[in-house]
Structure formats: structure tokens, C-alpha cells
Amino acid sequence: MCVSIHGEFMRLLTSTTEQSPSLPKLSLSLATTPEELREVQRLRYKVFIESMGLTALQNSDGLDQDEFDDVCEHLIVRDNKNLKIVGTYRILGPSGARRIGRYYSESEFDLSRFEPIRDQIAEAGRACIHPDYRSGAVIMLLWAGLAAFMRREQCNYLVGCASISLADGGVNASAICTALQPEDMAPLEYRVKPLLPFPLTAGTDSQYKSNIPPLLKGYLRAGAWVCGDPAWDPDFHCADLFLMLPLENLDGRYSRHYLKEPSQ
């Protein structure tokens, strides 16, 4: 697995991870051309819209796109053998948020409590991995790219939404949210309010085994906090939890792997 990303990221992502010969060689970079951005949007469309059967969001272009794409940076992971983009994450830093006037999450949550640290926030979203590449290697590269971005932009906080499908009527979402432990929750000064709250179902069967989505599980393992009750996203038919990850919360494994100082 090679890591190669242009500009100031080069020195931040110098390490390589060996892969077995049976696994594809992957490379990390930033989307720099309109063609790469469209390839990102096509992958997102297939994963978020086609595979989830969201007919209301289908379009003839086959692209998942919005106004934030033009002010975000887009991490991309390619399979070097076929040159296809197999993973992506978009990042909105403080300068991009100032240009568009808000963070994406503000369409779902009241972030007024974040005003004092607004210039230290990087927002990650639209995490998307091709179904054939969900072994863990792609998300590791994307996390390395997120860490590099935060070092470059001097951001101390990573925020974003983790989605829970409502295909089962919300049973799993309610079970996950009610099972969150106090240590999973953000301090009161970082609690947010959903603009359109998702109504949690009371009295979930104690025998029900919740299925935590991989992205949410990864954030929690890394030391992220859940900042309050979930919002309902009717367009994507999911419940969204707003998460905040202070860099100082990263546990030893993650900080050593992603935030180590670049070699001199």
C-alpha cells in the first residue's frame, strides 16, 4: 500500500504499509481535476443512492453532488492496477467553511456552541468505499489523509456525522443510541441540538443485538464523542449522530499510526 499525496502532504504521509501479494496496491491522493471529482461523485452515487434504493435522489447524470463539493478537498484512494477510485472522503476546513458560510452539518444540527473553536474544526463527510474494497486498508489510508489535512490546517477537532440506516424502521438506530455509555458522550459545552430530531423508540428489546455501522464504530474506537441526540435525514433515510474527535482524545494506536511527526 503506497501513500502518495501532493504538496504539503508529501512529508506527512511518507510511511508505507506492506500488503500481501493477493491484495491490491492502493494509493492515496487528493482530487485535483474536474474529472477526478466526477469520478468521486459517481462512486458516491453508486454507494449512497443506487445501492440504497433512494429513488428520490436518482438523476440521469449518475452523480451525487452538492454545493459543498466545490469548497471541499476530496481524498481519493485508487487501485493502482485498474486506476479506479475505490474510496473517498471529503473534508471541509475552516477556510472552506468561511467561503460557503457554514459547515455541512449545520443543515442538520445547531452548532452554535462550537463558535469559540470554529477556526479549529475540520469536517469530514461522504465517507465512501467500494463494496469490493472493504477489508480495512482503504479506510486506514483515508484516516491517514484526514490526519495529514488536520496537521496542515492546524485543526484540533474533527467533526462529522455518522449515519444509521432506518431501513428496519429505526429499531437499530434506537438501540444504538440508548446503549451509548456516558464516556461516549461529549461534555455539555459541546452538545448540539438536531434541527429535525429522530424520534427514538422507547423500550427496545433488551435481547436485541444492535449493529453499529463500521464508520461509527471506528470513530468511537478512535476516541470520538457523540454530541447529542440524532437528527433525522429523510433524504438518505437515516438517523445521523454528530461526532466530535479532539485530536488529544486519539488513543495510542491511532495517534502513533496517523499523527506521528514526519521524518526530518
The amount of helix comes to 25-40%
CATH class bucket: Alpha Beta
Return Rg in Å. 18 Å
Percent of residues in beta strands: 15-25%
The beta-strand count equals 10
Which labels suit this protein?
6 helices; 25% helix; alpha+beta; 264 residues; Aminopeptidase; disordered N terminus; two-stranded antiparallel sheet; globular
What layout of secondary structure does this protein have?
Elements: E1 26-30, H1 34-50, E2 73-79, E3 85-92, H2 94-100, E4 109-110, E5 121-129, H3 137-153, E6 157-165, H4 171-179, E7 193-194, H5 214-222, E8 225-226, E9 231-233, E10 238-246, H6 252-258
Parallel strand pairs: 5-6
Antiparallel strand pairs: 1-2, 2-3, 3-5, 4-7, 6-10, 8-10, 9-10
Structural features, described:
Helix 3 links the parallel strand 5 and strand 6. The two termini are 22 Å apart. Residues 1-20 have low confidence and may be disordered. Strands 1, 2, 3, 5, 6, 8, 9 and 10 form an eight-stranded mixed beta sheet that branches. 36% of the residues are buried. The protein has a single domain (7-258), classed as Gcn5-related N-acetyltransferase (GNAT) (Aminopeptidase). The chain has 264 residues and is of the alpha+beta class. The chain contains six helices and ten strands, in the order βαββαββαβαβαβββα. It has helices spanning 34-50, 94-100, 137-153, 171-179, 214-222, 252-258; strands at 26-30, 73-79, 85-92, 109-110, 121-129, 157-165, 193-194, 225-226, 231-233, 238-246.
Give a nutshell description of this structure.
The chain is α+β, with helices and mostly antiparallel strands.
